[in-house]
Amino acid sequence: MPVEGGSSGSSASAARHPKQKRKAHSLSMRRTNSTEERPQGILRGDMLEGQDSKLPLSVRSNLLDLFGQIEREFENLYIENLELRREIESLNERLTGDGQAIEGGDPTKGALKTKASHSTSQLSQKLKTTYKASTSKIVSSFKTTAGSRALCQLLKEYVGHRDGIWDLSVTRTQPVVLGTSSADHSALLWSIETGKCLLKYAGHAGSVNSIKFHPTEQMALTASGDQTAHIWRYMVQLPAPQPPPDINVPCEEDQDSSDREEGEVDVEGPCEVPTIRFATATLKSHQGVVIAADWLVGGRQVVTASWDRAANLYEVETSELVHTLTGHDQELTHCCTHSTQRLVVTSSRDTTFRLWDFRDPSIHSVNVFQGHTDTVTSAVFTVGDNVVSGSDDRTVKVWDLKNMRSPIATIRTDSAVNRISVSASQRIIALPHDNRQVRLFDMSGARLARLPRSNRMGHRRMVCCTAWNEESQPCNLFTCGFDRQAIGWNINVPALLQEK
After folding, report:
1. Of residues 131 and 336, more confidently modeled
2. DSSP summary character for residue 272
3. Nearest residue to 432 (alpha-carbon basis) of 462, 411, 472
């Protein structure tokens, strides 16, 4: 307790040492007594006998020890609090005896009381604010605001894979369909409006880790754990839109999703859909898992990223290996190409991402960027001169290609970020998280919304990837995850930006 000026300061200083000794002695005695006051004849096992619990005796004993330690800590804090209150009361009595607490007395002495009272109120307010902030943060994590539900509404669920879905993509040509790639060794094409599976590709012998569609033709590029990438052609016919069901007619097969266990999804499987089993071209120069692949502008070349720490550039027509892009120190996690220029960005577990420039045929330059402290899970181009990178360090960074010494915006989250996507027209970043959340941000780092998540909608396990379809009105966002399903969302972009 700070005391200023006069003889009262010296008297309080002189009295401080014996009080501290008494306090330390009292605390020491209480800590000793708190352990010795337990009856010696009662063993821990005896205390646990007769209690209805399925825990092993050793585990229950350890829990009893831990709770005992917590109880003693609270007891010690309570004792210290009582000692401090006694000291404050004694100081107040001394100040009152010296006439320092009398209204209208010495201004300096009156200021002393005011200062002490102000300090105490500040401490109390700080404790209240900290407690309120911590509890509000916990409670808010369980809430889904009505605004988010209105701005982001569930469109359709795409269920049919028998294992987690790693990646998804939307075709750039008509008919517009959704493609998903899964750990069940298959890739599926879906009708966006009806949620019906249209076609299955089963040419891979391992997990299908990535799927991307040709910019102008009906061709798909998939990357797999079988150390290859496949190019295959498809032909699909969209089903006629079905009339909405009559909500007045009860359905006996309806099941409340709240009755399902976490992570459980009704899997019907793509029954009797056309299946493609052979690729048009097989790219097989990697010595490890091919984790991602993408088409270069024009669609005549593709780039693949692998766990063998290299990215390969291939000619589509001949399947010939053109370049091997080496330099990363650990496994690659993702690759992405620019929509209008011959630029490639690769990300890696070595905490870096690299920008490869193929615009000049005679010079293939590379730039290394070290903006993260953990695995860079993805890095993607945006329309314009920006790159957005996401990482397991729970951050997303926006970079300017003209000056990439430092990010122009940093988004900090509460969970690792997986494969991100950026809306080309609205420049909205969709972040899929390990904690099952999907959040939307603008390019300046301002948070726009969070997709609804409850026992009736949203993912039940980690969200792996997001993809935009901006040809539709309203704009569609697709997400996929380890719960073996993909989900389509209607995003009311004008309302979203207006609310921001």
Report:
1. 336
2. T
3. 462
- Give the SS3 label for residue 224: strand
Nearest to 418 by CA among 145, 214, 210: 210
DSSP 213: E
Stretch 15-44: mean pLDDT: 44
- Secondary structure element (H or E) that encloses residue 129, with its range: helix 107-140
Query: Tell me, what amino acid is at 27?
Result: L
Long-range contacts of range 489-492, CB-CB < 8 Å, 24 or more positions apart? 489/152, 489/153, 489/154, 489/155, 489/451, 490/152, 490/153, 490/154, 490/155, 491/151, 491/152, 491/428, 491/440, 492/150, 492/151, 492/152, 492/153
Is the backbone peptide bond immediately before 18 cis, with ω within 30 degrees of 0? no
The C-alpha atoms of residue 255 and residue 245 are separated, in whole angstroms, by 16
Lookup: tokens for 265? 């999804």
Average pLDDT for residues 444-465, to the nearest whole number?
90
Position 149 scores a pLDDT of: 54
> pLDDT tens-digit profile of 48-60?
555 567 788 888 8
Q: Which of 396, 402, 440, 397 is nearest to 417 (CA)?
A: 396
Residue pointed to by tokens 């209805």: 52
Radius of gyration of the chain (CA): 32
CA gap 500, 216 in Å, rounded: 36
Angle between helices 107-140 and 57-97 (to 10 degrees): 160
Residue 443 or 363, more confident: 443
CA distance 252 to 243: 20
Q: CA–CA distance from 303 to each of 205, 339, 347, 418 (Å)?
A: 20, 13, 13, 20
Alpha helices by DSSP H, listed for 37-106, are 44-48, 57-97
Q: How confident is the model at residue 233 (pLDDT cuts 50, 70, 90)?
A: very high
Backbone φ, ψ for residue 213 (5° rounding): -105, 145
Q: Which tokens belong to 380?
A: 């993607």
Give the separation between CA 138 and CA 207, rounded to whole angstroms: 37
Rounded to whole angstroms, the Cα distance separating 470 from 493 reads: 10
The pTM of this model reads 0.68
Task: Count how many residues are written for the chain.
Answer: 500
Say what angle helices 57-97 and 6-36 make with each other, to 10 degrees: 160
